[in-house]
């Protein structure tokens, strides 16, 4: 039969075969490979170290008489989870077969037991100092302490001098040309000052935010000065005792009285 080298199968391309994709190695597999690589390297190093100088010692290549293939050495060893107990364990006594007597009750006299316990018990001895302190034999027994004596002395000195508090001393203060301000007069003056402060504050709040002109700036400064002075006057009148001069100061007297020609 005539054999021709030409064939249809040479023209048709064979189907492309893809290799199956292997899954990537897990972390455990990578760790195991790394450990095996390190152990192999260590074994090689130890093997080279043993014969690093002049080869292995004499008799090293001889077979050992104790290392021979033993019977059942290559069979898998079964490890039981729970080994058998070889020790002898004492048994507990059997349950009594006799039936218990019905209605038997053990009567205890607790009053008598408590009395016997108290009779035979020892008295309680507190753990205190061996030598008891006798405060009656002290030199300073019955005397007044020094700090109390100093306080009593200071109180007696204040009584001799006069009034105790500065307010009471101010009430009896008699300066020439002065008088004590009456309570009603003080309250009315304080209320008038508060009303004046409220009126000035309302005018101050009505000022514009942007102060472009010099007159507006000056007006703001005047209001601030007036408010500050009114607050000082109110704080002055809030005292309990206020002394007022009977005669006006010379500066005000010149303004009130007409000039003498």
Automatic annotation (TrEMBL):
The keyword Lyase does not apply. Residues 154-178 are annotated as: Disordered. Residues 153-245 form the Enkurin domain. It holds the Pfam family Enkurin. One of its GO terms (molecular function) is calmodulin binding. GO terms for cellular component: cilium; cytoskeleton. Residues 154-168 have a biased composition (Basic and acidic residues). Transmembrane segments: none annotated. Residues 213-240 form a coiled coil. PROSITE patterns: ENKURIN. Signal peptide: none annotated. It is found in: Cell projection, Cilium; Cytoplasm, Cytoskeleton. InterPro entries: Enkurin_dom, Enkurin_domain-protein. Keywords: Cell projection, Coiled coil, Cytoplasm, Cytoskeleton. PANTHER family: ENKURIN (PTHR21490:SF0), ENKURIN-RELATED (PTHR21490). This is Enkurin domain-containing protein. It comes from Ceratodon purpureus.
